[in-house]
Amino acid sequence: MKEINMPKPTGEYAVGTFTYTVKDDRKEELAIGGMRSVTARVFYPADKESVKDLPKAQAMSENMVKGFKKVFKAAPDFKKNPEINHMECCQDAPRISGIKFPLIMFNHGMPSYREGNSFLCIELASHGYVVISVAHSGEGICTEFDDGSCVFFDKTIQKRQYEPMLGGVMAMLKLTKAKGTDEELARMFDEAQNKYCRFLMSRLPEWIRDNEVALEYAKNNLADLIDFSKGVGVSGHSMGGNTAYALCARNPEFVCGINLDGGLFGDYTKDIQTRPFMQISCKDNENVATRVYLRHTKPVYKVFFKDMKHIGFADTKHMIPLKFLVGALDPDVFHENICRCHLEFFDSYLKGTKAAPELKDNDTVKVSVYEPDM
User: Fold this and answer.
1) What is each CA distance from 65 to 27, 31, 76, 119, 211, in whole angstroms?
2) Pick from 264, 296, 293, 279: nearest CA to 194
3) pTM of the model
4) Among 3.90.1150.10, 3.40.50.1820, 3.90.79.10, 1.10.10.10, what is the CATH number of 14-152+203-370?
5) First-to-last CA distance in the chain?
6) What is the pLDDT of residues 238-254, one digit of tens each?
7) 3 state SS of 227
8) What is the rounded average pLDDT for all residues in the chain?
9) Residue 85 phi, psi dihedral angles, 5° rounding
């Protein structure tokens, strides 16, 4: 297997990591049954000197590889190439005493996994953020808990995403090629999701609650590491990006957010976005998130990535060299630009170190700014 070219973090800090699990009091609504548990991985800044002799954290366990194969029918062969099964961070690295860092929460897509955007999360942590990546049990390829148990992807979801499947897929494909104003496209999307995507719409409240449970744990247990004084930032890919939008619209603790190519599945007809927000899209999914540009009281940024596919907005961009799946854009160029978008945005609206993001068009991205419309 060709070695995965993992990006190296560029910030002033090394990065440490650990996980935690919270037992919630909700009944699990997916096929796995029982009560819902929430697990998360924390990426945090560490002193570079303190990690010199520490091993890198494992990227994927045997269960994660098994989950990958169950969903995608293929996975990296770490048994033959164990040297590539690591992340650019250290397990339980010593924390920097006396310094707290602002918090960004991250949500993976469906079906992805807690570490599915680790390259981005690690880069953010190296620049002075704590990033908590929240797992969504049963909706990731494999969700691992701290007691050693795990839950694999609920295969019934594949049949329930569009009901009926053929009609739903055809409606969404038609929408990707539709023409119209942002308002018209948002209305077309809502008509399609209300007809075919009731299951996906029903999952949004559960994903919101997963974040709130993970955040409550962090407030109670990680106050020595995290600076909560300026609020919480949030980002996510696909369904995770949709969750980021909902959290910013509905939960006052979240002060700014980014959606990585996620469709807005859910009932947003009464929501007004009162937080600065960034919508990152590619051509295929540009029409499923136009509601982001409507009904907002703070600036909204549209960043359009050229030569990208939906699944490429994650570590898969580096791991799967298939252009028809992840897009033709060079992985390192993608990583540089996606990290720049996040750092400019969160440095402005979470850290407050600059007045506004300094983002301009280049050969990779086209940037538009929607000023408040209410």
Assistant:
1) 28, 21, 7, 18, 25
2) 264
3) 0.96
4) 3.40.50.1820
5) 53
6) 999 999 999 999 999 99
7) strand
8) 94
9) -90, 65
